[in-house]
Design a protein that fits this description.
mainly alpha; two-stranded antiparallel ribbon; 12 helices
């Protein structure tokens, strides 16, 4: 029997036993990771550099991109490194950091998605009060509350999880350190405290979900009262990306943790976990930008500016050489 004080590392789930499949996993995750970095990085750059996008909706979108970048960077690089080097190990401290960061970022993202639902509700249902209810100070406070709630949630869960004695070895059936998998290694009765915290978190998450659903019920009722078809289309187009992101996030998360034990298997667990932890950060930028003309226009300006800078760079040494030749003359 072992305990947490004697464990120096955990063994993560290996995607494959053969070298060829390990490299395939590495390249697949590398492609997804680079897509997430590029997409979220472009949205952050577009929103930060274009003053026309300094609106509450785009401010929250910038925060969402930051959380997505952090979330995928917490789990994917370590899994890629293990596949590349043919190892499964993660240090005890690395596992603690991974759990803390993942819970922090996931909880903050869910809170932010709830705030974004409120933003869409005010924009559609109470447009005359939008500037008052969602001023710059209010937006900063709501974003800070989302990040702060994620941090507090993560501190409680991480401290509770890693204070438990571990009696069932150090092998995790997941490609990153996940609380349910660590609880499986704990002693028989010692996990009840963390299980209670998880149940409390589920109730809070369910409250946020109810708030999002009620917000969209009011939004769609308001949209149906808009007389012009163009107005209804514009209102729906601003809400649809958020609704798609919330649906993907919630449905995959619920299925990952509440699926019936009869259909549970290591391979299915990995697939579902990838769907809620890896895929959303990569596809969220595409979902938010594909129908957003302001984002597309801002990105076009960013690319034009970058192309201009690339064209200017070769001119600088040439101009400097001409200046020095003229000075010598």
């Amino acid at each position: 029997m072992s305990n947490s004080s004697s464990i120096t590392e955990f063994l993560l789930l290996a995607f494959a036993d053969t070298r060829e499949l390990q490299l395939l996993h590495f390249w697949l995750f590398l492609g997804i990771y680079l897509a997430a970095l590029l997409g979220n990085g472009l949205i952050i750059t577009a929103v930060a550099c274009n003053h026309h996008l300094h609106t509450p909706m785009h401010f929250f979108l910038l925060n969402l991109s930051l959380l997505d970048l952090g979330c995928i960077s917490t789990t994917v690089p370590k899994s890629m490194a293990n596949s590349l080097w043919g190892t499964r190990a993660i240090s005890y401290g690395g596992c603690v950091a991974q759990v803390f960061l993942f819970v922090f970022l996931i909880a903050a993202e869910y809170s932010l998605l709830t705030v974004m639902a409120y933003d869409r509700y005010v924009a559609i249902c109470k447009p005359l009060h939008y500037g008052t209810l969602l001023g710059s100070r209010a937006c900063v406070h709501m974003a800070a509350a989302a990040w702060g709630s994620g941090f507090l949630n993560s501190v409680l869960h991480t401290a509770s999880t890693f204070s438990l004695p571990v009696c069932q070895g150090n092998v995790l059936d997941q490609f990153f350190c996940e609380i349910p998998q660590i609880l499986k290694l704990s002693c028989s009765e010692s996990y009840l405290r963390e299980a209670g915290l998880l149940i409390l978190s589920c109730f809070l998450a369910f409250g946020c979900f109810v708030f999002i659903v009620l917000s969209y019920v009011q939004i769609f009722r308001a949209v149906l009262r808009i007389p012009s078809e163009q107005g209804r289309h514009k209102a729906v187009s601003t809400c649809l990306p958020h609704l798609v992101v919330v649906s993907l996030f919630v449905s995959t998360g619920i299925f990952a943790h509440l699926k019936p034990p009869s259909i549970s298997s290591p391979s299915l667990n990995v697939v579902v976990t990838v769907l809620y932890s890896v895929v959303p950060p990569a596809v969220n930028p595409l979902i938010y930008s594909v129908r957003n003309k302001e984002i597309i226009e801002a990105l076009r300006k960013v690319f034009e500016y970058a192309r201009l800078q690339i064209n200017i760079v070769p001119i600088i040494p040439l101009g400097l050489a001409l200046y020095l030749r003229k000075s010598e003359g």
